[in-house]
Amino acid sequence: MTARKIGVTELVLRDAHQSLLATRMAMEDMVAACEDIDQAGYWSVECWGGATFDSCIRFLNEDPWKRLRTFRELMPNSRLQMLLRGQNLLGYRHYEDMVVEKFVEKSAENGMDVFRVFDALNDPRNMAHAMAAVKKVGKHAQGTICYTISPVHTVEGYIKLAGQLIDMGAESIALKDMAALLQPQPAYDIVRGIKETYGDIQINVHCHSTTGVTLVSLMKAIEAGADVVDAAISSMSLGPGHNPTESLVAMLEGTEYTTDLDMDRLIKIRDHFATVRPKYKEFESATLVDTDIFSSQIPGGMLSNMESQLRAQGAGDRIREVMEEVPRVKADAGHPPLVTPSSQIVGTQAVFNVLMGRYKVMTGEFADLMLGYYGECLGERNPEVVELAQKQAKKDIITARPADYLKPEWDELVKQASALEGFDGSEEDVLTNAMFPGVAPAFFKTRDEGPKSVAKTPKQMESEKQASGAKQQGIAGPIKYKVTLAGREHHVAVEPV
Amino acid sequence: MTARKIGVTELVLRDAHQSLLATRMAMEDMVAACEDIDQAGYWSVECWGGATFDSCIRFLNEDPWKRLRTFRELMPNSRLQMLLRGQNLLGYRHYEDMVVEKFVEKSAENGMDVFRVFDALNDPRNMAHAMAAVKKVGKHAQGTICYTISPVHTVEGYIKLAGQLIDMGAESIALKDMAALLQPQPAYDIVRGIKETYGDIQINVHCHSTTGVTLVSLMKAIEAGADVVDAAISSMSLGPGHNPTESLVAMLEGTEYTTDLDMDRLIKIRDHFATVRPKYKEFESATLVDTDIFSSQIPGGMLSNMESQLRAQGAGDRIREVMEEVPRVKADAGHPPLVTPSSQIVGTQAVFNVLMGRYKVMTGEFADLMLGYYGECLGERNPEVVELAQKQAKKDIITARPADYLKPEWDELVKQASALEGFDGSEEDVLTNAMFPGVAPAFFKTRDEGPKSVAKTPKQMESEKQASGAKQQGIAGPIKYKVTLAGREHHVAVEPV
What we know:
2 copies of one chain form a homodimer. Chain A has 497 residues and is α/β, with parallel strands linked by helices. Helix content of chain A is 46%, strand content 12%. In chain A, the strands form 3 sheets. An 8-stranded parallel beta barrel of chain A has the order 2-3-4-5-6-7-8-9, surrounded by 6 helices. In chain A, strands 1-10 form a two-stranded parallel sheet. Chain A is globular. Chain A starts with a strand and ends with a strand. Chains A, B: One of its GO terms (molecular function) is pyruvate carboxylase activity.
């Protein structure tokens, strides 16, 4: 019997360092691993997305488009993959269709192959245009199901959504589990259901590892017919990140499945990032495993967000009440999956409800969510709260695709970018400024200074280590000081006796 | 359909802190969690074994028998479980049968319920007497298969070994995977094979999590019919430890299996140990996930052992050669599983072979291993090396059960203990000294001072943190001192140059 080959998407260049190191990894810490990554036999290499783009221009003074071109050069044999937030692109609002087309065109031109297109609310209308644009440039359009748990989310619902994505031309379906909520049985049932209903459409499964259970979910998904699964090289894995690539390889040994990955290459990649990760220690999250989300339904990042909002109001002791309010607000909104931006919108409204009375004050974003401006959720919105939203925001309910209400904006975006110091005249720069108008202008100005790393160099770490070592051991030899005594400077050597 | 109930053995009180915190956890850090552990619905609570016993008297000035009685009192509803190294008991040599009986009797008397009996070489003759002794006192005798990978270890061989253990009266079979080598497929095949061959004998599966793959192995073992699996509460899990209890619960939700554990209790247990673990940070291993063992066959602890032996000989650069020598030595010895003590014996001989020429010098222990004094391995020993061992050690080959060559020793052990200062006259003390003759005498002397904790109190941690914080920030400006020199006070400002 020949084992069925399971494709693997390596996440180390994007989601792994986004989840573990606050997206801070500099390009110089990735370059040396690219040849091995290119040769290891992955189905694809995820290397680009909203947070990496943002981090490039916000913290690293690096042009994200150039990063993409560098990856393209260094990994000529690999499918490069990105995560695209549908009509939001990599930003936080809906863009008019022509901007979406421009972005996809430019991404493809600069080297992107696989576009994983998703929407926080799972509203297919918010993914449709991006997917059509991907197909238009001849690249791989992957439609995405964001997995969550709620009274209205069912296996059947996810299977139906997969069908809508296939109808929209998805070349493959991604089951995306950003909160590590996907348990083995639903993983099996959803993948199996999609395969049985729609035939042999390619299914990719993406799980985080926060709850400690999702490598088992990948196993069950594979048994159910999944074709590609996501993993991160072990030295950049686990916690809020992903399951280790080498463990995945080991998991399938002896079964009727195989990854066919080159273990010698994986070891080199692992050893490379094992030296890189410690340099970003200050950005690391401490979470190793956390299953609270199964009962609270509240992702870790959302929880800490609400806690800091409460503290800022001097109400840090009311987090329990807010945690109990979240499911109510979520239900009122029609059970959106809690990911960016819906997690922030629901969380902030829950805080407001506790501090000021339920819906006495409504944020503009929450009103928009209630009135359809982010798209449709699976559940029904609470009509009383919708009415309140209309009154408070003085806006109408919309039912069509949100982007249909937008006017053409490309020319205006070109004009805005052109006015900026350091703008290089490219459409890439126009898109950068369109998506991150609060950050791009400063980046354009300093771009010529070249990329900056926020990693601690070995030298910096060594000197910190020595300093702390000296402290622990005490002073070993003479230390020289400049001592000012009675206004006069003396050079003094001090050593223990 | 009613879900099949899967029992869970909680490891936090023994193997979890042994694997993660060098067995240093003090009783005072466990007491507060015992009620919740007792009520959570575990099949058993592992709480005693060789390393915890050793650590009690070596580092914590605590009587391990008293620890056991305390557990018994605090957890009246639980099966207490221990790990027993067959004829070695908790020590490092074979004991004569009457000592084995005494130890089992006293352990049962002090509160032990389930005895997991194992032998490093999987030689049933080394387990037989301990198991018979357990049955004689009416307690649960669990026969153990140590899982390893080698050219002579097969699924069929493990199934056969299970049969031998059942014939010896095992009430259940433990599949013990101390190096996290048990992959999903063999986990399934071995459990399935045992159930199909011998009917419904209870099977317990124990896996470490080092390679990141073994929660999947537990899933497959459960699918194959395993009855009880081992886990550690999440705040004391992963890395060289075990899979998280809560993740196991989540894994089975929605499947045809259930743990029926009380999640509210688990959360309390988790929160308790989340505050305990940081106090032992200095004892923590850094390993998070490591799949090297699949190719090297060398457990992490054994590797670091060999490295330090090489460094002590000024040959730290020859570790590659030693790593290549290990499989050869292991094969010559008949493929023993590499666990204590076989891992040390094989590793040290591999170092000697590299430094001084192959088998030019043989350790006494390796000669004993080659001549049958530790029992039989599954593979054949290399006859040429056996001959060398006979010559160098001037000893005969033995083929019977090693303990058959021992003379009654109980009276002598009583005499030895009685001569010690602080001996309390109990048979428990005789056993303590019999198993740890190098440590017990000093412990008996200081026992009256009561248990000592090696944990860092929050206050200690805070002051260390402040000290290191100050150091890291460096001296920002001049610091003023009052210096008394030859009886006169000077006010001095010091700053770095």
